[in-house]
Design a protein that fits this description.
This is Exported phage protein. The chain has about 70 residues and is mainly α. Helices cover about 90% and strands about 0% of the residues.
Length: about 70
């Protein structure tokens, strides 16, 4: 315990600096990752909405198929 206390008294500034740098690195990594996740989620959402809008509704497909039958 005495050795640990002596080491902390001698190297406290270096330990604080290392902990701050590690915290900043982790925070930057999390922030960057969340940015990419949001960008990919927006892209996937845009793609899925384009696919939904590109397909005609099933009701229109059924009516189009029945039109020749109804004219007979």
């Amino acid at each position: 315990m005495n050795l640990l206390s002596a080491l902390l008294k001698r190297y406290w500034l270096q330990l604080v600096f290392i902990l701050l740098m590690a915290g900043a690195f982790i925070a930057g990594n999390v922030w960057s990752d969340r940015g990419w996740q949001k960008k990919w989620a927006d892209r996937d959402s845009a793609e899925s909405s384009q696919e939904v809008n590109a397909r005609p509704p099933p009701v229109l497909l059924n009516r189009a198929a029945l039109l020749p039958v109804m004219r007979l």
